[in-house]
Amino acid sequence: MRKLAIHELNRLNPEEFKHKKKNPVVVVLDNIRSANNTGSFFRTADAFALEKVVLCGITARPPHRDIQKTAIGATESVEWEYFKSVEEAVESLRNYGYQIVSVEQCDQSVSLEKFKPEENKPIAYIFGNEVSGVSEEVIEISDTCLEIPQWGTKHSLNVSVSAGIILWHHFTQPGQFPKK
């Protein structure tokens, strides 16, 4: 066994990526405080060939030094859009037929292992502020809340780590594996 060299990974360049068919998945960032976390979302969105990243409220926007530090160029390949409020973003996505899923611990949240995305429907996963999570107003207008099971003493994960877990689960569901 050996580690692959960069040229063996057959990676797309940013221009090829822009023209590639994307997976009908959007991540919505609800007032993310850390530009480093925002950069991680861009990098994850690139890895899974997501349709776009939606930045809302106080979430930093490219170009930003701290986003670039963790995105390592993914802001050049991944489409993004900004909305002043998350509610505006949800309304826009709903008008385009997206299933709206907030990633949050709620009284009626669905545990991740039981969640199946709706077939043939685009989906928007909403990730909340590092301290206060997804806002109550957004939870009320979501189709469902999705919770990552946890068994330790902390009741939260880093928001960008949560995105990796949620998206990996999404793409392991039948019919959802990323398009190559």
Give the helix/strand layout:
Layout: H1 14-19, E1 23-30, H2 35-47, E2 50-56, H3 65-71, E3 80-83, H4 86-95, E4 99-103, E5 110-111, E6 123-128, H5 136-140, E7 144-147, H6 159-172
Parallel strand pairs: 1-2, 1-6, 2-3, 4-6, 4-7, 5-7
Helix pairs in contact: 2-3, 2-6
What is the element string, with H for helices and E for strands? HEHEHEHEEEHEH
Mean pLDDT: 94
Major β-sheet annotation: 7 strands, parallel
Q: Which structural class best describes the helix and strand composition?
A: alpha/beta
Please give a structural write-up:
The protein has 180 residues and is α/β, with parallel strands linked by helices. It has one domain (20-172): SPOUT methyltransferase, trefoil knot domain (Alpha/beta knot), CATH 3.40.1280.10. Helices cover 31% and strands 20% of the residues. It has helices at residues 14-19, 35-47, 65-71, 86-95, 136-140, 159-172, and strands at residues 23-30, 50-56, 80-83, 99-103, 110-111, 123-128, 144-147. Strands 3-2-1-6-4-7-5 form a 7-stranded parallel β-sheet. Helix 2 (35-47) links the parallel strand 1 and strand 2. Helix 2 (35-47) runs parallel beside helix 3 and helix 2 (35-47) packs parallel to helix 6 (159-172). The longest helix is centred in the C-terminal third of the chain and has 14 residues, at 159-172. The two termini are 25 Å apart. The mean pLDDT is 94.
